[in-house]
Specification:
single chain, alpha/beta, 6-stranded mixed beta sheet, 5-stranded mixed beta sheet, disordered N terminus
Length: 348
């Protein structure tokens, strides 16, 4: 009997030890699984919103242009940092109508959180000039990423070597000074209009198809001046062929530290920077907007963006979202409308 009881006790002890080992093993496996998930996680911001499919990044301008460049730079960072939860992102160039074709296409994706689009100043001015149906108010503003700078350049052999001298020359020759820029009603046209409004000069704006054509015309002596982004004129400036008289932004441009601003030269109302932002289709949910704001907040912290895209192209970082971005857009639209109205370019 005692042997039987001893046998039962021994069996119970073995079962207890076995159960304890199983419990400990199970706990280790759970911890390992959790650690594995954590170590494999991406830099994607925490969000209740989940992408329902792959991402379409609409660019209303041609491949290789300014909007295409920042779309592809941002898209590459999203992929490399795993910000889209394994979803792919494709840049879709929907060109035509100065951005109108792309905006109309984006508008057809109402409420779709997987569709975003590049959005710049010209997409606000386009409908003002052409009367196209889709305006910035028909889409969903997400955030602004950066400001693109503008300068006015002249030949280094010109008789005017400073902005004041150029303005004096234009006043002495009303209607005879020509300023070239890319397209009609574009940012180049706007800044020329600002000069006319607040520098009290009368110049003729000549639209070209590209900044390269503007530079060629100026170097050939066919126009007096041209409007350029920093990367469009910096090589000629550094070679000494072109003088950049002033920058239109509120502060000097990082890649052109020797070029003064209109503001510091006493023309404080001649201020302009092209914004480069991100919009979504109309009726995008707030959860989707918040998700994309978080994604782009991560994008702009990446060195490929700050050192690669911004620094090399002379852009200024300026992140805006929410009510702050809404206010900014409305103020910019009012400014554009005033200038275009003064130039007689408003539709209707």
């Amino acid at each position: 009997m005692k042997k039987y009881i001893a046998l039962l006790l021994s069996l119970a002890l073995v079962l207890t030890v076995f159960a304890g080992c199983q419990s400990q093993s199970s706990g280790t496996a759970t911890t390992a699984a959790t650690t594995g998930t954590s170590s494999a996680s991406s830099d994607a911001p925490a969000s209740s919103f989940k992408l329902s499919g792959d991402v379409e990044f609409v660019c209303p301008y041609s491949a290789g242009g300014g909007s295409d460049l920042y779309a592809r730079t941002a898209g590459n960072i999203m992929t490399e940092k795993g910000l889209l939860g394994g979803r792919t992102i494709t840049v879709n160039n929907k060109t035509g109508g100065g951005g109108a074709v792309g905006d109309a296409y984006t508008a057809t994706k109402s409420g779709d959180g997987t569709v975003i689009t590049t959005y710049v100043s010209a997409q606000i001015t386009g409908p003002m000039i052409n009367g196209t149906e889709i305006t910035y108010k028909d889409l969903t503003p997400i955030c602004n990423l950066a400001m693109d700078e503008y300068t006015i350049g002249v030949l280094s052999t010109a008789e005017y070597k400073t902005l004041d001298e150029f303005i004096a020359y234009a006043k002495a020759n009303p209607g005879k000074v020509t300023v070239g820029g890319s397209g009609s009603g574009t940012e180049d046209n706007l800044v020329t209009g600002l000069m006319q409004m607040y520098c009290d000069i009368d110049v003729e704006y000549i639209p070209y198809n590209s900044s390269a054509e503007v530079m060629t015309a100026m170097l050939g002596g066919h126009i007096n001046a041209g409007i350029y982004n920093p990367n469009e004129a910096i090589s000629q400036y550094e070679a000494g062929d072109v003088l950049l008289l002033a920058a239109f932004g509120p502060e000097r441009i990082s890649v052109l530290p020797d070029v003064p601003t209109f503001t510091e030269l006493g023309y404080d109302k001649v201020v302009f920077q092209q914004f480069r932002g991100i919009f979504g289709p109309g009726n995008m949910s707030q959860e989707a907007v918040d998700f994309w704001v978080g994604v782009f907040e991560t994008v702009i912290q990446d060195s490929s963006w700050s050192d690669g895209y911004l620094a090399k192209n002379g852009l200024t970082s300026k992140f805006l979202s929410g009510a702050e971005f809404d206010t900014f857009l409305n103020e910019e639209a009012a400014k554009y409308e005033a200038v275009l109205g003064n130039l007689g370019l408003l539709h209707g």
